[in-house]
Design a protein that fits this description.
GMP Synthetase, Chain A, domain 3, 3-stranded antiparallel beta sheet, disordered C terminus, 237 residues, Ribosomal Protein S8, Chain: A, domain 1
Length: 237
């Protein structure tokens, strides 16, 4: 934490000047009034400016305060918030919430949205690059294990049917998991298709029976046709 004192004609003016000077929002600092302003007697005797002491919160405190406010807002109990830091990368875990399924959401969508908003709030006015990974209990680990199983099943189907398999839409971090796992086996390749939240990983054989890459048409997809807006071949996102 960093402590700074500022002097101004009023407390409000000191706060405004501090926020402007350090480009901070209200949740990023605390303050206490060391001295209230005093009016001068007859306009020039005994007057005094306000003195305000500011404490700039470190990122761990900002993250914790943000999540405490959020959990209070939705009236959800929890046991604790754990935060681990490694070079401005923060692993944050909400332990034992009363309704974990609500925070996680379908396929982790609500948790991913909350993580996105948390990153925006924490790093909006920071000069450092960093990232917050938000978890509830051990959901991220369980999700990674489930995706690994799905990828193995898809690879087995590709090998057996000699056709491409399209995974369900995933966020970028989860698509990277699939890319990395599949690329460990040189018999397979991956690409991505779609835009935004509809981006999907396609798993296919690295070469066709004739030594060429598979043709990209509707018949290649085991799970059915897809209208491709964008395709990145062999790209790890």
């Amino acid at each position: 934490m960093k402590t700074i004192e500022k002097t101004a004609k009023t407390v409000e003016l000191a706060i405004d000047e501090f926020k402007s000077e350090y480009n901070l929002e209200d949740k990023q600092f605390k303050y206490e009034v060391v001295q209230e302003p005093k009016n001068a007697f007859l306009g020039f005797i005994g007057g005094a400016d306000a003195i305000v002491r500011f404490t700039i919160l470190d990122l761990k405190e900002e993250i914790r305060n943000y999540l405490y406010d959020f959990m209070n807002l939705i009236n959800m109990d929890f046991s604790m918030i754990e935060i681990e830091n490694d070079d401005n990368n923060y692993m944050v875990r909400i332990n034992n919430p009363s309704e974990p399924g609500f925070i996680i959401g379908k396929d982790g969508n609500f948790l991913n949205d909350l993580e996105y908003l948390l990153n925006l709030a924490i790093f909006k006015n920071q000069d450092v690059n960093g990232k917050v990974v938000l978890d509830v209990d051990t959901y991220r680990q369980r999700r990674a294990e489930a995706l690994a199983r799905e990828a193995k099943i898809a690879m087995s189907r590709v090998l057996k049917s000699r056709t491409s398999i399209k995974m369900k839409p995933l966020i970028s971090a989860e698509r990277r998991m699939i890319h990395n796992q599949v690329h460990q086996d040189k018999r397979f390749r991956t690409s991505t298709i779609g835009d935004g939240r509809k981006r999907q990983v396609i798993i296919s054989l690295s070469k066709s029976r004739h030594g060429n890459r598979p043709n990209w048409n509707k018949k290649n997809f085991k799970s059915g046709p897809v209208q491709a807006k964008k395709q990145n071949t062999d790209k790890q996102e």
